[in-house]
Amino acid sequence: MLYANENTASAKSLKHAMTCVDNLIEAAAEVVAVFHTYQMIVEDTDLPSDTQIIEECSQMFTVMNRMLLKDKANLQHAYMMKKAMAKSDKLLKEIRKPKSEKQNQSVAVA
Asked: Could you tell me the CA-to-CA distances from 7 to 51, 79, 80, 83, 88 in Å, in that order?
């Protein structure tokens, strides 16, 4: 599990990784659907194909999809924590500014 202080990836790389995982999840789901269609055709037409093999292949992609969904959740959590920590760091930086710097900013605004 990734915790905020252990996450060294940038928010941009996390976002790209989530996009890749989304694409993999969608592709795996489409493969499962194609296996299902193939299995139905084989069963309906008595083609000389082993439906057990088709079913096992479909199950492998289903398991892969489930694993990718778990990975996506980890990436989403890391991304959310990265954004939250950046907001927190920005707020702390603002709070910790020297008083003279804060006064200069308020004078410039006025």
From this structure: 44, 9, 11, 11, 15
User: Are the CB atoms for 25 and 68 separated by under 8 Å?
Assistant: yes
CA of 70: how far to CAs of 8, 77, 81, in Å? 20, 11, 17
Phi, psi (deg, nearest 5) at residue 76? -60, -40
* pLDDT tens sequence across 35-84: 999 999 998 998 888 889 999 999 999 999 999 999 999 999 999 999 99
Kindly tell me the burial class for residue 44, based on how many C-beta atoms sit within 10 Å of its own C-beta (0-12, 13-18, 19 or more).
exposed
Q: Please tell me the pTM assigned to this model.
A: 0.69
